[in-house]
Design a protein that fits this description.
about 50% helix, disordered C terminus, single chain, alpha+beta, eight-stranded mixed β-sheet, disordered N terminus
């Protein structure tokens, strides 16, 4: 026989080699490649099995060089790593994720384009400052005091800003890395029983090889992709496929047999495979086990077909190792920093050329001011010109921009951690502020992934344990614990005995009742929940009270929470029935079978000749056999047509809401001396066979006794559902109000998916039935890119979807210009989480793969934390934009003021000295960043629409404020600088050097106070966006710059610090700051001129953006910008294919026309 198998195997190898060509391994012993074996599991396919193994089970063992009974053979004393099997297929190890070190994070931060720019500016500024200090002749103020050369400090200041930004950002990232490493520190290594060399061995799951025969039992997590070859079991594949229903597994032999029968009955069905049904409704049996899924019940043996990085779990894990795309804000900030630097360089070049030509004129022309100077002095004058020009660049360089971003992100992520969000990637925080779409997994994300009894009726008393739209105020706890009101003790006893005894589920020894209290505390999201408590909860993971089928665990949980059953007593209640029920013993068990859709148990009642048959199962099946119904007072009534309609209506109402209807019933056999009754025994030819009552006869056969029909009695109907997480409905509504579209992606069928989407407000009663609101994954997959783009604006539910469908959905939405967040808890969600702009995973119930793929971990498993992420993300984005608005106002004013005053000066010097500019830079960079980047979210922040990916960083309203405030500041400073003598010394023709220094100091003082009040104005940003009516813009929210001023103590401290330091500088700055004592009139002028920023700010904010855009010469600006910023030399980005297919409306045109604003 062995020779025949060997000959047949060799023939099959030759056929495979001919069919697959070079894809086959060169090894004659193992002709199958890992890619061919993976076709069996992704997707699960018996069609692929038949294609690969010629419709024969024995070919599987032949080609994998294994034996169904004895497993693989490894010579004694020899390591499996020396085997050819290992060389081709490897073992079950997946490379561990190595966290980045602190120095690696520092180096990555230094690679940022803005950091490189700032570092270069710091080096140039420092070198020129040292040159000025060491080689330039000393300069003196009007009183004859030497002016200290401190320009080199500017270089040190910029480099300090770089160091602070880099180290703060790296430290934040490093802390998140440590926390994430702690989350994933679970012991993944465990032992499993395998059969090798004909013996059962206990080995590490990491040492599993392809061809190994593994023993599986209830509660096991499948360690590698495999095929069930004996036994039957039920598996939970929700973490891998998103399918919340239990998947029944049948051994390979029966699967292939049934599959062939179905193909013969339905030969034209090309899609017939695992997961599909034939015309008659029979499903294709499933024998494929996916790594990472969990056995809920049953025993079996399986042959391993893929391990390690070749398994479904491993491939998903390895696919996560890709570099993330830059965030929308990163892209726009990088462009802004580039543009500011280009403008600064252009201004510096123009200034240098103007001053240089004037220098040549003074030097070469006979009688010129510099004509008679010696070469050293001429060289010194030239260096002055060069240093003044470089000063323009230093002033323009936005060294505070990365600091503001880092501070805002650090502040927000710290707050988010307190709210239960662990932000692994700081940039993800601000990206959430721009989010326009959320693609959410259903199972474990919107729902709890715990099947529960949520609604039902016992006797004639209804209950509803839901959190919303409840059909009745009574809960299950109420009806079972309110004495003699809703449920009699006798009915409660019958129901409880049915749940406890008619079940194969058992208690989880790792569970503790206090875990439920922890979960409830997490759901309440109180800030008193400590960070360590959250981390401990995540490390422990979700531990359920019972292990078994989801229906049975749901019923057991109800018995524990509503009927008084205590955790830890389940086994005693089953073994010592007399102590808990009026039941003497269990005499027969009828296990659940999918063909009959019910399970039962026969018990003998205590001290009587009565036997009771307890049944639970599919409501439509069980109720159809019930001719009687129990009422709440334990009386029994005959089921007539009216009651039948009521029962059907009850079942239909549960089905409409996507609840699985389960009925509980019983039947009493009176005056029975021994079991089974002769009328219910099936005759067999085997006299030695144990005699039991026929399940079908027990369930369906009616007897007439005492003048009435004896049949099943209906005790109750319950609806089982994976319930929504607390707060999901409100969170979805908040997202919609904030302009963020929530889409649900699930493995459920489309009707169930629609019902759940309606329950959580993703669909409404108005659009529930609309075509195009929901679609199945296979249909979505077949659409062309143009068709997907056409239907996506209306699509809200994607049912029966695969991980690939979710990935395509995210990819298409991103291509359409959306900023996409994806949520998920399972391994199947990982590709979409990684591809999305922001990926959210569940901290407690999420798999390691999902957490690895995500940017933000919801530590409380609370979907509503996503709303907090949007809120803080918008706060970060707004804070950064407020800072940019303030910095550009100062930048524009300082650059133009320095430029004009240097050109107008005979000495080529600016009205603002290097030390004064250093203080101004400190105000507009470090201090302003601290003040504006630490603000908290506005109460109305979630009422605004998201900005999306293509919206410019600087909107028209921001440009309007920049130009308005800069114009004010330039008018004031130019007036004081050029007309100060006529204002303050009108009677003096030629003022002294001291008086000129007074005027220059007053210009500096006014300039600083203008920035002081502009900082207050910058607290408002886009509150008036979209309001076109002048009168409607006059609101407190739009114009009150002091609104909620005291919610940010950092801002108040910074303002107090700036004001105090400026006063001290003006009184005691003296020679270092080139300050001369100010008269009271000068002080009044400086402060009053500074306060002009407030009324000008109000006027600017009242003017609608549309009016400003009409006045503003956009075409001229865009043309100048194109050439001045060397836009024509840059790489021009083209819109994605998806974006180019989106129809443009008037609003889009207007938006694109403002894209010059970055």
């Amino acid at each position: 026989m062995t020779g025949v198998n060997s000959e047949h195997g060799s023939l099959l190898v030759r056929r495979l080699t001919h069919r697959y060509g070079s894809t086959i391994s060169k090894s004659g012993d193992f002709p199958l490649t890992t890619e061919q074996l993976s076709e069996l599991h992704n997707p699960k396919s018996l069609k692929a099995f038949n294609k690969l193994f010629q419709n024969k089970e024995e070919n599987l063992y032949n080609l994998l060089k294994t034996d169904k009974l004895n497993g693989i053979t490894i010579p004694d004393g020899q390591s499996y790593k020396k085997q050819e099997r290992y060389a081709i297929y490897s073992d079950n190890r997946i490379p561990e994720r190595v966290g980045k070190t602190f120095l690696q994070l520092v180096w990555e931060a230094l690679q940022d384009k803005t950091m490189i720019l700032l570092s270069g500016a710091a080096v140039v500024s420092f070198i020129l400052g040292l040159y000025e200090l060491l080689y330039q002749p000393p300069q003196y103020d009007p009183e004859g005091n030497p002016i200290k050369q401190v320009d080199w400090i500017e270089g040190i200041a910029i480099m300090t800003a770089v160091v602070v930004v880099v180290f703060v950002g790296a430290l934040n990232d490093y802390q998140k890395e440590l926390q994430f490493a702690r989350l994933n520190k679970k012991k993944e290594d465990r032992d499993i029983i395998v059969i090798r060399n004909g013996n059962e061995l206990l080995i590490s799951i990491h040492d599993l090889l392809v061809g190994d025969i593994i023993n599986l039992q209830t509660g096991d997590v499948i360690p590698a992709d495999s095929i069930l070859i004996s036994g039957t079991c039920e598996a939970d594949e929700s973490s891998m496929t998103g399918e919340s229903n239990t998947i029944k597994k049948v051994d390979l032999t029966n699967s292939l047999k049934t599959y062939e029968e179905l193909k013969q009955k339905d030969p034209t069905n090309q899609t017939l495979d695992i997961g599909y049904s034939a015309k008659n409704g029979d499903k294709v049996p499933d024998c494929i086990l996916i790594s990472g899924s969990k056995l809920l019940s049953g025993l079996g043996k399986a042959v391993v077909t893929a391990v390690g990085t070749n398994s479904i779990y491993g491939r998903t894990m390895m696919s996560l190792k890709v570099e993330p795309d830059p965030t929308p804000l990163q892209e726009r900030l990088s462009q802004l920093a580039d543009s500011i630097s280009v403008y600064g360089c252009v201004a510096a070049m123009i200034l240098f050329l103007v001053l240089f030509f004037r220098f040549l004129f003074y030097t070469l022309l006979p009688g010129g001011r510099f004509h008679d100077l010696d070469p050293t002095q001429k060289g010194s004058k030239f260096m002055n010109i060069f240093i003044t020009s470089v000063t323009i660049i230093v002033v323009a360089v936005p060294e505070g921009l990365p600091l503001a971003v880092t501070l805002a992100l650090a502040f927000a992520t710290t707050r988010m951690t307190k709210d239960g969000n662990l932000v692994r990637n700081l940039r993800a925080c601000e990206t959430m502020g721009s989010a326009t779409a959320v693609c959410s997994d259903k199972t474990g994300t919107l729902t709890e992934n715990i099947m529960s009894i949520v609604r039902g009726i016992f006797g004639d008393s209804r209950f509803d344990d839901g959190d919303y739209e409840r059909s009745t105020q009574q809960t299950s706890h109420d009806i079972f614990n309110t004495k003699d009101k809703y449920c009699s003790p006798e009915l409660k006893n019958i129901v409880l005995s049915n749940i406890i005894l008619n079940s194969t589920a058992f208690e989880n020894k790792d569970y503790s009742p206090e875990y439920d209290d922890d979960r409830n505390n997490n759901d309440s999201r109180e800030e008193t929940t400590g960070h360590e408590d959250l981390m401990a909860s995540i490390e422990r993971g979700r531990i359920e009270a019972y292990i078994g089928s989801k229906t049975e665990t749901a019923l057991l949980n109800m018995s524990r929470k509503a009927m008084g059953a205590q955790f830890g007593d389940l086994q005693k209640m089953r073994s010592k029935t007399q102590e808990y029920f009026p039941i003497e013993k269990v005499v027969q068990i009828v296990p659940f079978e999918s063909s009959r859709k019910w399970a039962g148990v026969v018990v003998k009642l205590q001290d009587s000749d009565t036997y009771r048959f307890l049944v639970k199962g599919a409501a439509e099946i069980v109720s159809s056999e019930c001719q009687y119904r129990t009422l709440s007072d334990n009386s029994i009534i005959k089921v007539d047509n009216s009651i039948t309609k009521d029962i059907k209506k009850e079942i239909d109402s549960l089905a409409v809401d996507a609840l699985r209807a389960i009925a509980l019933s019983h039947r009493d056999f009176l005056n029975i001396k021994s079991w089974p009754p002769s009328d219910f025994v099936e005759k067999t030819d085997n006299d030695d066979e144990i005699v039991e009552a026929s399940p079908e006869l027990l369930f369906g056969k009616t007897l007439t006794s005492n003048g009435k029909d004896d049949s099943m009695i209906l005790d109750g109907i319950v609806g089982i559902q994976d319930p929504l997480r607390k707060g999901v409905r409100d969170s979805v509504l908040q997202c919609q109000r904030a302009g963020v579209t929530v889409r649900m992606v699930t493995g459920d069928n489309i009707n169930t998916a629609r019902a759940i989407a309606r329950n959580c407000n993703i669909l409404t009663l108005g659009n529930f039935s609309e075509e195009g609101r929901a679609m199945e994954g296979p249909q979505f997959r077949k659409l062309t890119k143009e068709q997907r783009i056409k239907i996506l604006p209306d699509l809200r539910v994607l049912a029966r979807s695969s991980p690939e469908d979710k990935r395509i959905l995210v990819e298409t939405l991103k291509g359409m210009g959306n900023v996409v967040a994806a949520t998920g808890d399972g391994t199947n969600d990982a590709p979409a989480l990684k591809l999305a702009d922001v990926g959210f995973s569940m901290g407690i119930s999420g798999t390691e793969v999902a957490r690895e793929a995500s940017d933000i971990i919801l530590m409380t498993d609370d979907f509503s934390a996503i709303v907090d992420a949007i809120k803080w993300g918008r706060c970060v984005s707004i804070s950064i934009k407020k800072f940019i608005q303030f910095q550009l106002i100062v930048d524009v004013t300082a650059v133009i003021l320095t430029f004009v005053s240097s050109v107008a000066s005979e000495n080529e010097t600016s009205v603002l000295t290097a030390v004064q500019l250093l203080w101004v830079n400190l105000i507009m960079d470090t201090l302003a960043a601290l003040a504006l980047a630490t603000d908290k979210p506005d109460p109305s922040i979630m009422d605004r629409k998201p900005r999306g990916r293509s919206t410019p960083l600087i909107t028209p309203s921001t440009w309007k404020m920049i130009l308005g405030q800069a114009t004010l500041q330039l008018i004031v400073t130019f007036t004081l600088h050029f007309g100060g003598q006529r204002i303050f010394f009108p009677d003096i023709k030629t003022i002294t050097g001291f008086q000129q220094q007074q005027l220059d100091a007053m210009t500096f003082n006014t300039f600083v106070w203008l920035q002081f009040f502009t900082l207050i104005v910058s607290r408002k940003l886009d509150e008036g966006d979209g309001i076109r009516n002048w009168r409607d813009r006059v609101t407190k929210a739009n114009l009150d710059f002091f609104q909620d001023l005291f919610r940010n103590y950092y801002f108040l401290l910074v303002m107090a610090f700036i004001g105090t330091c400026q006063v001290l500088i003006m009184f005691y700055g003296g020679a270092p700051f080139s300050i001369a004592p100010q008269t009271p009139a000068m002080w009044q002028t400086a402060i009053l001129c500074g306060t002009l920023s407030l009324p000008v700010g109000i006027i600017v904010r009242i003017i609608p953006d549309e009016v400003a855009l009409k006045i503003f010469p956009r075409r001229l600006f865009n043309k100048l910008n194109y050439y001045i910023s060397f836009e024509f030399l840059r790489h021009k980005t083209t819109p994605s294919d998806e974006e180019s297919l989106i129809p443009r409306g008037e609003d889009d045109t207007a938006s694109s026309s403002t894209s010059a604003f970055y």
